[in-house]
Amino acid sequence: MHQLGLTECLRYASNGSIRHPRGAVDNQLDHLFVSDALHSKLESCVVGAQALMFGKSVSDHLPIIGDFGH
Q: Per the structure, how many domains does the chain have?
């Protein structure tokens, strides 16, 4: 994806320090890729409530919330 000019917002916003509760960051299931133009407006990027999703066995995916400025 990087070769296509796309940036993974969650990894970038956390300096690569995110960890999927069921494995290492390399096992991350959820991604938010954006173009350079949108990436330059990225203010924050976080995952949703892990306890809600995994604790109640709702899904093995986490919602990703990207906040982009104007």
A: 1
